[in-house]
UniProtKB/TrEMBL annotation:
Pfam families: CYTH (PF01928). It catalyses: thiamine triphosphate + H2O = thiamine diphosphate + phosphate + H(+). Residues 2-197 form the CYTH domain. Its cofactor is Mg(2+). It is an enzyme of class 3 (hydrolase). Its main location: cytoplasm. It is found in: Cytoplasm. Belongs to the ThTPase family. Signal peptide: none annotated. Keywords: Acetylation, Cytoplasm, Hydrolase, Magnesium, Metal-binding. This is Thiamine-triphosphatase. PROSITE patterns: CYTH (PS51707). InterPro entries: CYTH-like_dom_sf, CYTH_domain, THTPA, ThTPase_euk.
Length: 212
């Protein structure tokens, strides 16, 4: 298990120039298809828990414990625990929706576990991602273009279990300053834009619950 700390930003042609100026190393371009799953009642996402299949690999993003007092810059960052072991994902999903009747058998290796837990795909899209590494340790920058005409960048640090989240926040803040990111508003992620279009009521609910 690791913690993903990230800050989103809107980018332009100037961002590419800036990346070059600050010596960011382009580490390549990838394309991936994401499918997000939840119950029809959205039990997972209403608990800020995001179940995703990306190019055949499962991943669950869950909230982390609050850090306590945070500086303004850190408030622009999100932090999520990332679980990638399918067995651990299934356990966590079951915990989150345990108040529902989701009796499952021990063998959940094929995709029958989805229907047993009443999980359906509620969002799917393809992203083209250009990735860069900064000199600061562990700082990665992704520039994403989703297939529904939305682009967003993110500065990201992955912190291994028990690692220093505070240091990750500081490195993200330094990177943001180098990139000249001086906005103080939350930037919409791909999911915000997708849900607004395809599940507007659920989107409004997530906003009203301060999940998005
Ligand atoms: C919507 C959401 C999650 C799903 C994944 O979102 P995101 O990290 O934006 O996707 P992506 O493709 O960049 O994933 P990566 O390749 O980095 O793993 S996980 C948490 N949320 C909620 C959320 C939020 N509340 N605020 C912001 C700014 N982003 C996401």
């Amino acid at each position: 298990m690791s913690v993903e700390v990230e800050r989103k930003f809107l980018f332009s042609a100037d961002t590419l120039k800036k990346l070059e100026e600050i010596g960011a190393l382009c580490i390549g371009q990838t394309q991936f298809h994401d499918q997000y799953f939840d119950t029809p009642e959205f039990d997972l996402t209403l608990r800020d828990t995001w179940l995703r299949k990306r190019e055949g690999c499962w991943e669950l993003k869950c909230p982390t414990a609050p850090l306590g007092e945070q500086c303004e810059a850190a408030a622009l960052c999100t932090r999520y625990k990332e679980i990638t072991s399918l067995a651990d994902i299934q356990l966590r999903v079951q915990e989150v929706i345990k108040d529902r009747d989701t009796e499952t058998s021990a063998s959940l290796l094929d995709e029958r576990w989805l229907s047993k837990m009443n999980l359906v795909c509620f969002a799917e899209f393809t992203t083209v991602r250009r990735s860069y590494r900064l000199q600061q340790e562990g700082v990665k920058i992704d520039l994403d273009q989703a297939d529904f005409d939305y682009s967003v960048g993110e500065v990201e640090v992955i912190v291994p279990e028990g690692g220093d989240v505070q240091s990750a926040l500081e490195r993200i803040e330094q990177a943001a300053q180098k990139l000249g990111l001086n906005g103080d508003k939350r930037i919409e992620g791909k999911m915000d834009v997708y849900l607004k279009k395809h599940h507007p009521q659920h989107y409004m609910k997530l906003v009203s619950e301060h999940i998005l």
